[in-house]
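Sequence in, structure out. Go.
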Amino acid sequence: MPLTSPLSQHIIRRPQRIALLGHIAEQGSITRAAKSAGLSYKAAWDAIDELNNLAQKPLVERSVGGKGGGGARLTAEGERVLRLYQRLQVLQAEVLATDEAARDFNLLGRLMLRTSARNQLHGQVSTIERHGRNDWVRLQLAGGLHLDAQITHDSTQRLELEAGVEVVALIKAGWLELLAIGQAATPGHNCMSGVIEAVLDAEDGPSEVRIGLPNGQVLCALAQPAALTALNAAQGQPIQVQFAPGNVLLGTPV
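Output:
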């Protein structure tokens, strides 16, 4: 199975995150892998979430709070991606044998976009419906999940969107709202159910809540401690998360 375009670009743009797969394979622990890779525990979690969200299948399976701060192992797909990364390292060393080639790679790096949006979900366009000046774009995610995005018709044309096109949906953590299981979602909003994998409290401000979806992708939401208490939200508890289609940004590979 070929890699998704977003994941292929991620291998090239952010090799240090792909290299984390090798440390996980060697260490069998998120904590030890993070230390070996020179990352904080939180940064390692972020990297794993982003990789799993961009892949069609999860690359890493983990268990929270295991020996050494949480056990982790590569899935078969993760092992395949790691082998590809290792082959690319060899090819890159050959290509960068001259200073001119190295400068060209630096130029390519500047032309590729990074984003501050915490949630980046890979999917494919399934349908596009025209509503005046806006389009309602439905994305098919891994595992049969879907989400809707509302963008202008001009944006649809500029991105050359049509059924089957691969895209990345970008959603800022602050745009997600947590709901109790069974609580009615706002009409017209996206609503997904999952399980809270972790709640990372902050000394001042909202807590960061990681929600594992049934397809292996992960959403990150921000919530005030009082709101979490009212929802009885804690690690291992089921939860719903909703967000407006207008708060979904779409990106395509350049």
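Check: Residues 76-95 form the longest helix (20 residues). The domain at 173-244 is CATH 2.40.50.100 (OB fold (Dihydrolipoamide Acetyltransferase, E2P)).
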